[in-house]
Predict the structure.
Amino acid sequence: MLANSSEASTMSSNGLKPAAPDLGSVTASLPKRAGVGLKPEHFQEILANRLDIGFFEIHAENYMVPGGPFHHYLTRICERYPLSIHGVGLSIGVDAPLNVQHLNALQTLLQRYQPHAFSEHLAWSSHGGTFLNDLLPLPYNTTTLQRVCDHIDQVQSHLGRRMLLENPATYVEFLASTWDEGAYLTEVVRRTGCGLLLDVNNVHVSSVNHGRDAHATIRSMPLSQVGEIHLAGFAQQLDANGDQLLIDSHGAPVAQAVWDLYAFTLKLTGPKPTLLERDNDIPAWPVLLAEASVAQRQLMTLCEAGQPHISAVTVEVTE
Amino acid sequence: MNSQTSFATPLLDPEQPCPSGLTTWNHSDPAVRYGVYRNNVVVSLIDALADTYPVVQQLVGEVFFRAMAKVFALVNPPLSAVMAYYGQGFANFIASFEPAASVPYLSDVARLEMARVLAYHAADVPPLANATLQQALTDAHQLMHLRIGLHPSVQVLASPYAVVSLWTVHQSDAALAAVNPDVPQSVLVFRHALEVNTLKLAPGAVIFIHMLLSGQPLMAAANQAILQDSAFDLSSTLALLLRWQLITHLTMGEKNHEHAH
């Protein structure tokens, strides 16, 4: 029995409407519940305790290995929980052709595990045959827009499925940018038909880093096409002026400001599958679980209130 | 130079200045902010090496290890997004890294640690049925030309140093002082079920397995092993391979006559 079955029926009995008519194909099976990033440290505990978790998410590249324990445990976890596969190495924003070998490896992985969602980043991470192992920023202009859309078209046709694109956390901006991020992502989604993986922590981090209003940034995103939400913790340092510079570290608990922004976001989007990301300083399993349950409570509160979601367009009109 | 080249190049070259074309909302120097990317890239590569080479790090200490890993990473960034295999050239790098010369066994310990990573993620291939195997081994006519295929996780390493003892002592709080590093050791690394095993073997056994891995017929491999280690024992080595279910296929003669699993 899938861990989410009772929750799914609860939500449907509350009569919640899907966020948008054409969103069904993305989120039909990833439940609108809290999920947790799957870490090898927790494999055995997850299987031993049959916990009530909405879904698990893996980084695709970690499982691009022929065999062994990673596949052994993922196969078993996949039998019990919905799965989201999140790529970190496709380099969709690269100013060169996509790596077809990497695309093929993704295809093999997706065929093997049939995940409920597949996502990647609005970023680049490779250059001239070198993999830089970080999500690097790109200017938002018509040239990069066309390239990103071409790459997403290629990915979606190669993989035969819709993907979700994640908004990045950034530390610099480009003189060559002519679009703001929300408008850029809205246009990418419109042209390619991909969905949005709305990383609320990234919105907070980038808003602080670039002196923007986080709520306005959320409202500028293509909210009707959100297929999943990410939450994570950040680190803090100062820039050359002594102003706050937030680093998307995935190494700390979710900050209160991000929880608040999440609540604000959910009121606009309705409940969405929400992932707790933790990739560094990974705490004991019960600690992660407790954090995921905070997100789960917010989702449940929204469900129990039976609150109809407000579309992004409606919000802009009423404000 | 296009914009991604100018953004990417200084990430791995500390001598290069911050790229142009960057801006900040508060007119602060973008170099500090660009430094976050520089740091992310280099630290993530060092961390990846530290994950793969924990015993190397324990042997030289964290500060030395991270400094050495940084020198390696700046010159040898990953060529693939699959980070599990990053740093396969690290052992060779260590062997020629002057400041580590006082720890001569360090590079072989690195070789052992990478072999364990490769074994951990190697393909899952079922062992050959014992009956099939025993039938082939008892047929003297076939034996001459028999080729033994081993599980993809199987690797061997022959070191002039006590690599297994050095590695083993770091899996617990045992005292390093008790290990004499200047004892040659031959090692078999493989995965059985979900566990990676590191076994110290006689030199002949490791030569034999090495010959099998390079595609030599069983008898040729055994002859080579005896030549180099007069104490080599074929039957006990085969028994070891059987016990750990490491024989995955058999081939007869020049042509492929594969037995089914």
